[in-house]
Batch of 2 targets.
Target 1
Amino acid sequence: MNSASVGRFAEDVVAWQKKHGRNSLPWQNTRDPYRVWLSEIMLQQTQVATVLAYYARFLQRFPAVANLASAQPDEVLALWSGLGYYSRARNMHRCAQDVVALHGGQFPRSAQLLQTLPGIGPSTAAAIASFCFSERVAIMDGNVKRVLTRVLAFSKDLASTKNEKQLLAVANNLLPKKNLKQTMPRYTQGVMDLGATVCTSRKPRCLVCPVQGICESYAEGDPEKYPFKTKKLKRSVEHLSLLWARKPDGSVWLERRPEAGIWGGLYCLPAFTSEEALLTSLPERSRSRVQYLPPFKHVLTHKDMHLSPVIAGFSASQNMSSIGAIERGRWFLPGEWQLTGLPAPIRKLLEAEPDQ
Ligand code: SF4
């Protein structure tokens, strides 16, 4: 890209964003780092349409970072329940606590310092710093990388860190140079909007694109071959048998998952790697009276989970010591588990409770 085009890119993106970009999302038109941070974390791996309701609920319950910092972890996870990638919620809670404890309740004002907080990576830090403090720093999320690799016809493999760094250096060179207070937030939003609404991964709408005149992949005639990245996600499969232990009053036994790994920190039905292991864990008299529910599949980004629920009736006085996980779990009364952080498929399963 020649130097005239380098200068034009930011100007064209800023002018386009003002007229055609997304300007009415609830986390826009604010320079409050708490709100921007909340939306950025929620928008990782999640569509805007889904985030809208969660964002509103979070802000209603935790209007400021100090409210979130002082919340109980279970309440944060319960509000997050259904958004997936629960490590985001746990990191978010820790981050709020660090902002209060280490920074006097104010988010740091530079991308570099923001990255020292839990769960804030380079792209989120750059988004907060450019939106809220007009720092001249480039965000590099998936949408932005797609736009830049196409505009520049950047054909190097992004699976390599060296190539990623090279793209970042070019991205920094494309940032606005004047009037940063106004242009940086608008440019950052513009380049994100362009990737989300015009320069889409399939069938980019080049004919309405504001940077078509300087886009090298458009001139080449095949924008969709960018970005180039060789590393493919390896999907795995996991089979789990779920023990749905319940008492005559409708109570259900739930235990907390370990912090690390899938559904970390959430309450869940006890999960076993096989039906045999599940049955062996039950008291003898419960084994013959179990009820098998139809297995179902739950799809995660990296994994297909095949879940097989088994209902086991317990008497009012029976306890769960036999399954060996008693220290992590307890009985939840009907109406009680609804307020607890549960993985989405488990919540759905319990909501469709079959008759006793
Ligand atoms: Fe993307 Fe097409 Fe615009 Fe180039 S011209 S940035 S490929 S939408």
Note: The chain is about 45% helix and 10% strand.
Target 2
Amino acid sequence: MENKIKIVVGTSNPHKIKELNEIAKDYNVEFMLPSSENFDPVENGETFEQNAEIKAKEAARVSSTGEFFLADDSGLCVNFLNGAPGIHSARYETTPEKRIQKLLSNMEKAENREAHFVCALCLVDKSGKILHREEGKVYGKIALEPKGKGGFGYDPVFIVKNINKTMAELTEDEKNTLSHRGQALSNMLKWVQTKL
Ligand code: IMP
């Protein structure tokens, strides 16, 4: 497709760009890293929405090129833990394995194991004006032990509602279709395609 809409993503992770472009392959949209290495947002928001906005605005501020800037913030919210680890999901412990172990040990006495993943997306223009937001959620429960080898983060202990497999047991395509990030992104792509 010619003349793709180029969107700079508030991340310094090239893997994220690859993943987004894979999900967006049927859209007239191309995602790219910020042109500057000075992308260093202070993620001090109190909600996923606020942190996504902080990262999108920081990408707009530091990039010398680009018209549109997108960022996401996501995490796992567990009912028994009053929504934790929530916006602190990435910092709950120092490694993915330790984060899972900490979660399972905090859940030892839990009868209610319900949880959900959230992904907030925020799209801004070069001046930092918010153009559009999307939020995706996927519901499920926390497993008693890890299962599956796919995905990342908390995927091996998150059993997807009505599917009864952990997120780590799904194929990449299956996860992209039903995940919080997949849903939020596909709605954002539809908006971008028709409104920009
Ligand atoms: P980020 O905002 O995309 O950097 O995600 C924050 C943290 O939430 C990640 O480091 C993971 O620990 C957790 N997380 C977010 N999305 C997922 C997911 O799809 N699977 C498993 N863990 C996730």
Note: Residues 72-76, 89-90, 117, 151-155, 167, 179, 181 surround inosinic acid (CB under 6 Å).
